[in-house]
Amino acid sequence: MATHKDVSADRQRKPRVLVSTVLSRAPLGLAAPLVRVEVHLGPGIPAFAMVGLPEAVVRESKERVRSALINSGLEFPSGRITVNLSPADLPKEGGRFDLPIAVGILAVTGQVREHALIHREFYGELSLDGELRETSKLLPALVEGARAGREVILPLANALEATLVGHASLKVAENLRQVCDALRGRVALPTAASAGDRAGPVSQPAAAKQGPDLAEVQGQFAGKRALEIAAAGEHGMLMIGPPGAGKTLLAQRLPGLLPPLDPAQALEVASLESLCGRRPHAGTHRPFRSPQHTASVAALIGGGAMRPGELSLAHLGVLFLDELPEFARNALEVLREPLESGVVNLTRLKRSYEFPARFQLIAAMNPCPCGYAGDPRGRCQCTEEQVARYRNRISGPLVDRIDIHVELSALSVQHLVNEAPERPESSAAVALRVAAARRVQLQRQGKLNARLTPTEITRYCGITRDSRVLLGIAISRLGLSARGYHRVLKLARTCADLRGDTEIRRMDVAEAVTLRALDRIA
Ligand SMILES: [Zn+2]
Fold first, then answer.
1. How close is the Cα of 217 to the center of ligand 1, in Å?
2. Cβ 408 vs Cβ 222: under 8 Å
3. In the predicted model, what is the mean pLDDT of residues 368-385?
């Protein structure tokens, strides 16, 4: 064997280590707890056993590690090898532990020095010929490893996502042989950043990232204005309107009105994408997720194979639920916890873990089962009872948590013809006003208006006497519910912030009342 000479040289300097420990990490929510990969080599009948891993994983991993070592011109020992991954109760799916196991075998057989393993972490699935393959769900582990101040060795194929961490201690290798040479001090592995740069930019072209623009939506001024207010105060919004009113068009344009993610937020979003087995991108554009109404609870909250669900993929972005009344009741139930706390809690293997899920909820529904209630051409055939039953499906705690309810009408031909010829305002122009209003809120109260508590509403959303009179009329005459009172004040605050006014005026209160359509209907 090619390596025989230097192996025996190493052995002469130092007696064989019979147990070696290699550090790696398992995925657990967005956390990545440390896993110790212990490799024991003892005398006796040749055997290769693994403890603390599921049987199917063990079978495949053993085969890959053995073949990779041999095909890389390294020694696979003939004694009894036992690999123990601890703690035992962490999920250890996938091939990420191939490299740490192989490195442990190199150390326990004296092919590399035990000393070389200190202050290092290892990740990566091996192919039978010793190449390091792209390994899924790595990003949270890379973040934690870099944070712990260790050198992290990972597959070159994962270099692009590693560049998101932006840390010089992340090193990439193409194959096991390279890792072995690096641990022997013969070669220096390149940093992920330098390798990632060569592989091209990690993000999509800027134009593609910006998403659809508000300038493309003709008319629908009420909807656009509601969307701007929702963006400025991070208010949840329910749009009620017939098919073709542009509900989806508007919802898709909300991320483009929101401030871009900062680097830490972008890394968090990318980590959640990584845990879904996708190749994350370094975009600062906020996520937009629109699960179908047939989505299961598991698809929404995550779980299964430790994957985040739709609610977490919408973290720091927008969750759009079209056809809200069509969602199953238990699916809508699971939205309540994250809407309050911003996290989803899950349990697996008796361990509880959480995924962040702080999203802005945008929902849409038809005014009645057929969609045409209130249609001037009288197309709606629904009975009063059918309409009531349809609307009842969304009543209760979930809708209680949505600040804005806005009614949208279908665009009539007349309206389209009369449309002013000038181009509608662009997303970028609206985003400037939104950003300014958000700055004001954060300076005044350290949070956005949607998150104000009742005590804070009293403190920050005071209204003048004539506004109170107006609000009193609205409550009695329009049938505005008492529970909507606080919501109106918060919305009025956002309207005033958008105008750059420290005072909430009558017109702000009047506008806020129009954003509580369901209160009037109920
Ligand atoms: Zn109808």
1. 26
2. yes
3. 88
Residue bearing tokens 């009842």: 392
- Do 320 and 364 form a contact (C-beta atoms < 8 A)? yes
Query: What token pair was written down for 445?
Result: 């109260």
Query: Residue 375 in contact with residue 242, Cβ under 8 Å?
Result: yes
**pLDDT reported for residue 206:** 41
**490 and 448 in contact (C-beta within 8 Å)?**
no
State the distance from the centre of ligand 1 to the C-alpha of 368, rounded, in angstroms. Answer: 5
- pLDDT band of 248, cuts 50, 70, 90: very high
Which of 81, 180, 162, 88 lies closest to 126, judged by CA?
180
Taking the C-alpha atoms of residue 201 and residue 196, their distance in angstroms, rounded to an integer, is: 8
Quote the ligand 1 centre to 323 CA distance (angstroms): 14
* DSSP letters spanning 473-499: HHHHHS---TTHHHHHHHHHHHHHHHH
3-state secondary structure of 380: coil
Cβ count near 189 (within 10 Å): 20
Q: How far apart are CA 245 and CA 407, in angstroms?
A: 10
Name the residue among 262, 347, 263, 271 with its Cα closest to residue 313.
271
Pick from 107, 143, 100: nearest CA to 124: 100
Distance 390 CA to ligand 1 centre (A): 10
- Taking the centre of ligand 1 as the mean of its atom positions, its distance from the CA of residue 272, in whole angstroms, is 40
What is the CA(373)–ligand 1 centre distance, in A? 5
pLDDT in tens, 304-355: 767 899 999 999 999 999 999 999 988 988 998 899 899 999 887 677 888 9
CA of 227 to the centre of ligand 1 (A): 26
Pairwise CA distance, residues 34 & 140, whole Å: 12
CA of 365 to the centre of ligand 1 (A): 12
Q: CB of 125 within 8 A of CB of 94? A: yes
Residue 247 has which token pair? 């509900």
At 208-233, the pLDDT tens digits run: 456 899 998 888 889 999 999 999 99
Q: Residue 23: which of 102, 118, 136 has the closest Cα?
A: 118
d(CA 238, ligand 1 centre) in Å? 19
Q: Tell whether the model's pLDDT for residue 371 goes beyond 80.
A: yes
pTM for this model (two decimals): 0.85
| Residue type at 344 in one-letter notation | V
- State which amino acid sits at residue 192: A
- Most confidently predicted of 29-43, 119-133, 159-173: 119-133
**How confident is the model over 426-466, as pLDDT tens digits?**
999 999 999 999 999 999 999 999 999 999 999 999 888 88
Residue 324 and residue 365: Cα distance in Å, rounded?
Answer: 6
> Residue 2: pLDDT above 60?
no
Dist. CA 329–CA 398, nearest whole Å: 10
